[in-house]
From TrEMBL:
Domain of life of the organism encoding this protein: Bacteria
Organism ancestry: Bacteria, Pseudomonadati, Pseudomonadota, Alphaproteobacteria, Sphingomonadales
GO biological process: polyketide metabolic process
Listed PANTHER family: ESTER CYCLASE (PTHR38436:SF1), POLYKETIDE CYCLASE SNOAL-LIKE DOMAIN (PTHR38436)
Protein name per Swiss-Prot or TrEMBL: SnoaL-like domain-containing protein
Organism: Sphingobium xenophagum
Gene3D superfamilies reported in the protein's UniProt record: 3.10.450.50
């Protein structure tokens, strides 16, 4: 998967790591990325009421080609809640960030957990690791998140969780 070895402690980003992630961004862009990383800390604790403060909950929208059912904030919020229960410890971190203008950032993130909390897509808990990389494009309105577009490595996730078998070609062009 290309991830360097990590521990759960790597999901609590130090001040220095946050500064490295936001290096080169404008002050406003760094604010937005830090807002996103602060949100991860809240979600990693399972503070579902606390996460509301990070969003324009009445207007926030979510797009993901793999989850077209999660369009509004209140519906999308059920996804991290379900993941938290199904893949404890279900923790998130930001790995890289980019900015554009005063209201947009893009982040590369990592979600880790273990399939021990309950069934996922009909598969009973396997104890397998969940290590998903994903990109999110975030748009802010004021100081809160108003839109998220995410795309993740669902194929590897489903393979690792034994939901599907994925043939691994030596050379796919032969």
């Amino acid at each position: 998967m290309g991830l360097a070895p990590f521990t759960e402690a790597d999901f609590v980003l130090s001040k220095e790591k946050r500064a490295d992630i936001t290096a080169g961004l404008t002050e406003r862009q760094a604010f937005m990325v830090n807002h996103w990383m602060d949100l991860h800390e809240v979600i990693n604790r399972g503070d579902w009421d606390g996460m509301d403060a990070f969003f324009n909950t009445d207007t926030m929208t979510y797009d993901n080609p793999n989850r077209p059912d999660l369009g509004t904030y209140h519906v999308w919020k059920t996804s991290p809640q379900g993941l938290y229960k199904t893949f404890p410890p279900s923790i998130y971190r930001t790995l890289k960030a980019w900015g554009r203008g005063e209201d947009e950032i893009c982040v590369l993130c990592h979600h880790h957990g273990k399939h021990t909390g309950g069934p996922y897509m009909g598969v009973q808990p396997t104890g397998n690791d969940l290590n998903v990389l994903w990109f999110s494009w975030l748009r802010f309105r004021g100081d809160k998140i108003d839109h998220i577009y995410s795309i993740s490595d669902v194929l590897t996730m489903l393979k690792d969780l034994e939901v599907i078998d994925v043939p691994q070609p030596v050379d796919p062009y032969k």
